[in-house]
Amino acid sequence: MKDLFGNALLDYFNNTALEDIITSTNISDEDTLPLDYLFRDYTNMPKIEQKALDVSQGKILDVGCGAGSHSLYLQEKGKQVKAIDVSKGAIAVSKKRGVINAQQISLLDETETFDTILLLMNGTGIFQTIEQLPQYLKHLKSLLNKDGQILIDSSDIKYMYEDEDGGFWQDLNSGYYGELDYFLSYKGVTETPMKWLYLDFTTLNIACASVGLKCEMLAQGEHFDYLAKIYV
pTM, whole model, 2 decimals? Predict the structure, then answer.
């Protein structure tokens, strides 16, 4: 990975960003990801993210922390937070913004235990594929303290396959419809493509049950998105 995401965050933080990130998937056209959105404060976060932050408690792990916006808010509320991301640039920016404990590490390499684990901004994306979902859920389970919780959001993107007549054009031979190829570019440079997983709530619930976890809906957004609480 070229860490174009991290480079973009650093550019924005240093006031040298001249353009935004461009994203696309195998089922959607190019779209712009404004860099200032990644630096938003609590009042400008979606209701689902606000809900997740409001119910976070104890020792907290912020997975895929990006620019550290969620961690910073929790710190300001007196919470103990560890922020992790695989992006070197993201961790550098998080530290520069004041996140006390930010580390460049993948979720599967994390070994500490926590009372709350946050996976936000389509947190299921980090699972990449349906096939890897049980592995990630088992690992998350191992990181929970007694009575701990995992707060994760995602979207049911079935609507993206709907045609003008209300039918669905999904290719049943292509696997789960929420498993996408994700493309990102910045300043004319294209990042290595990666898998990105959107999960409908029913599929997430079944996957959790298969590894001994419970799952409940905490909130629903305005566009097929939701926040789930996962626990033992």
Answer: 0.95
